[in-house]
Specification:
There is one protein chain. With 119 residues, the protein is mainly beta. 0% of the residues lie in helices and 49% in strands. It contains no helices and eleven strands. Strands 2, 4, 5, 6, 9, 10 and 11 form a seven-stranded mixed β-sheet that branches. The protein has a four-stranded antiparallel β-sheet with strand order 1-3-8-7, with no helix packed on it. A hairpin with a 4-residue loop joins strand 7 and strand 8. The mean pLDDT is 96.
Length: 119
């Protein structure tokens, strides 16, 4: 099973990025999926989660109203649209599945994609 993230990069404060997570080796179309991140010197933090159907979404307090998680089950892919990025959003972003709980990640992780917010 592989989860491969992409879309990270360097962006100025207030900018946007869209992360993708492509799964292979098994389908996650009947599982929730999540995004976590780890900033420099910080613990891993829950960012966003989405139900298997996409009908329910969940966000960490620090990203509510700025980030949007979505999925395309036909492509076994999950997305994270990040708007109005802040310096404190800097970190490595990891895709996770199967995901069902903000504090208990699932068994599979991607390798991570670096997001750097800097002026």
């Amino acid at each position: 099973v592989q989860l491969v993230e992409s879309g990270g990069g360097l962006v100025q404060p207030g900018g946007s990025l869209r992360l993708s997570c492509a799964a292979s080796g098994r389908t996650f179309s009947r599982d929730g999926m999540g995004w976590f991140r780890q900033g420099p010197g910080k613990d891993r933090e829950f960012v966003a989660g989405i139900s298997w159907s996409g009908g329910s979404t969940y966000y960490g307090d620090s990203v509510k109203d700025r980030f949007t998680i979505s999925r395309d089950n036909a492509k076994n892919t999950v997305f994270l649209q990040m708007n109005n990025l802040r310096l404190e959003d800097t970190g490595v972003y990891y895709c996770n599945g199967p995901w069902y709980d903000k504090t208990v990640p699932g068994a599979y992780w991607g390798q991570g994609t670096q997001v750097t917010v800097s002026s």
